[in-house]
Design goal:
Blueprint (H helix, E strand, L loop, with lengths): L1 H4 L12 H4 L4 H5 L4 H25 L2 H15 L12 H7 L7 H4 L14 H9 L12
Length: 141
């Protein structure tokens, strides 16, 4: 009876593995990388919501739901963590993102940087299976 009243929690929120991920910075958790990035993301979300509404009014409410299911199915196809990253080509073609010309197309892929840490395959699989917490891999040193 007493154990039902207790709430299990960790002090400070989510436990972070400092040896695998590195030390936590407060500023990076609060502030985004750039103010225009948040504006771009909110504009993209509102454009997608408007597109869903138009498709729902034109073709019926079942089509946006089917499109969401297709998007969820295509977003699950990923390679295991390792030296070859998952390209998510099917999802890019489905959403039309393959036609976008991003910074990685003309500047360089951030994964090709000299400061990029190699991915720990075992930790990535542990995170995916829910055996370990934290990001799959730290992105940069």
């Amino acid at each position: 009876m007493e154990s039902a009243k207790k709430i299990a929690h960790e002090i400070g929120g989510v436990k972070r593995d400092a040896l695998r991920v590195g030390l936590n910075g407060v500023k990076s958790d609060i502030v985004g990388s750039h103010p225009l990035e948040s504006s771009y993301e909110s504009g993209k979300r509102s454009h997608e919501a408007m597109k869903r509404t138009i498709i729902g009014h034109t073709y019926g409410t079942a089509l946006p739901l089917k499109m969401d299911m297709d998007r969820q199915i295509l977003s699950r196809f990923q390679r295991p963590s390792g030296p070859i990253p998952s390209s998510m080509l099917g999802l890019e073609v489905y959403t039309g993102a393959i036609d976008d010309f991003g910074f990685e197309d003309y500047l360089n892929d951030p994964r090709d940087s000299e400061t990029f840490k190699p991915v720990d395959l075992h930790h990535g699989v542990e995170v995916r299976l829910g055996m370990s917490k934290g990001p799959v891999a730290p992105s940069f040193m």
